[in-house]
Design goal:
This protein has three helices and no strands. By secondary structure, the chain is mainly α.
């Protein structure tokens, strides 16, 4: 039997660009959901200014940045 090399752990086999492109799609998805939810809440409560949309988008941006920083600092 030929010598078989042990397979590397699954985490190491994932290319960095795939990991970070997945993070980008997560950020985009979170912002789209926040904008959609904010617009629905604004229309439900008949607000003059889009306060729910603004607040939910800010929360989505802060949460996405926190997740990005955590994933960058994690080994």
């Amino acid at each position: 039997m030929p010598d078989q090399k042990p397979k590397p752990p699954r985490e190491d086999s994932v290319k960095p660009y795939l990991k970070y492109s997945g993070l980008a799609f997560q950020m985009i998805g979170a912002m789209v959901l926040a904008a959609f939810g904010g617009m629905k809440l604004d229309s439900y409560f008949h607000t003059r200014n889009p306060w729910f949309t603004i607040v939910l988008l800010l929360v989505a941006v802060v949460a996405s940045m926190a997740l990005l920083i955590l994933s960058l600092t994690k080994k």
